[in-house]
Amino acid sequence: MNLSKRLARVADFVPINARLADIGSDHAYLPVALMLEEKIEFAVAGEVVKGPFESARKNVALNGLSEKITVRLASGLAAIEPQDEINTITICGMGGTLIAEILAAGDPNKARLILQPNVAGENVRTWLNQNNYKIIAEDILEENEKIYEIIVAECGEQKLSEKEIEFGPFLLQEKNKIFIKKYEHEIIKNERVLANLKNVKNIEKIKQFENQIKKIREIL
Ligand code: SAM
Q1: C-alpha closest to that of 108 among 99, 116, 117
Q2: 110-168 pLDDT per residue, tens
Q3: CA dist 183 → 5, 25, 188 (Å)
Q4: In ligand 1, which atom is closest to the CA atom of 78?
Q5: Rounded to two decimals, what is the model's pTM?
Q6: Rounded-to-integer distance, Cα 194 and Cα 175, Å
């Protein structure tokens, strides 16, 4: 089964023989692909919406994997049961605010977290920073003209600076060409908003956008 470039990159961070919970597992693409490659031992595919839950169940059955992948209709980490002995959790393709809410509402129980926020990665990093999770790797990639971040974390002490929370400690260090592209685009977007604000003379907002542009220019 061919995964999208985004999910294939997420799959690269799943350890061999992991017991995986994929939360928000529309079609269960990720656990099915990993199981077909015999890379994981067991998986739970958790979905809160009936339609995607049925699609996940169908895809798992179609691939003859119903014994090895349990599909559960549940919100967030409530899909995981103690006997699953989950040691790796993926939460992908959602906003960073929702990912942080899912983590806050449940107990990841020291599992490795592989998180792929579509937007607001800073909210994910804030949660990790406050909940004894240490970022061990990050990635940024482009697919179909969209830019995605991946954040991998394990239990451990870490105190990130404000800048690291906003831009990502590893992404900031590497500053690869996708990272540069993302933030050059952010500057253009912010400058457009700023021009409009100057027309309506909204002083407070003008300051806010000027500071944001300055902050981005400093890291590029
Ligand atoms: N993870 C897949 C991916 O990255 O391609 C699917 C992403 S899809 C855009 C997001 C999925 O998360 C939807 O199927 C949605 O129903 C599900 N979802 C949203 N909130 C959830 C929650 N609290 N618990 C479980 N699933 C959730």
Answers
A1: 99
A2: 999 999 999 999 999 999 999 999 999 999 999 999 999 999 999 999 999 999 999 99
A3: 21, 29, 9
A4: 24
A5: 0.96
A6: 25
* C-alpha separations of 24 from 45, 107, 131, 141 in Å: 7, 16, 22, 21
Q: Is 139 in the pocket of ligand 1 (CB under 6 A)?
A: no
Domain covering 5-160, topology? Rossmann fold (3.40.50)
In this prediction, residue 127 carries a pLDDT of 98
Does residue 164 have its Cβ closer than 6 Å to ligand 1?
A: no
**Long-range CB contacts for residues 206-215, cutoff 8 Å, separation at least 24:** 213/187, 215/163, 215/166
Sign of the torsion formed by the C-alpha atoms of 79, 82, 85 and 87: positive
Whether 52 contacts 26, CB under 8 Å: yes
- Indicate whether residue 47 lines ligand 1 (CB < 6 A): yes
Backbone phi and psi for residue 139, each to the nearest 5 degrees, phi listed first: -145, 155
What's the pLDDT tens digit per position in 54-102?
999 999 999 999 999 999 999 999 999 999 999 999 999 999 999 999 9
